Amino acid sequence: MAEHYENEKRVLDKGFVRLVEMLGNDFSPVQAARVSTGKGLTSPERDTRLLLYLMENGHHSPFEHIVFKFHIKLPIFVMRQLVRHRIASINERSGRYSEFDDDWYLPDHARVTEKGNIQGSVFSGDEQLDEKTRSMIETSISESYETYRKLLEMGVARELARIVLPSAMYTEFYWTINARSLMNFLSLRADSHAQYEIQECALAIADIFKETCPTTFEAFIRYHYSGDIIERGDKNDT
Question: Can you tell me the distance from the alpha carbon of 148 to that of 167, in angstroms, rounded to the nearest whole number?
Answer without folding.
Answer: 14
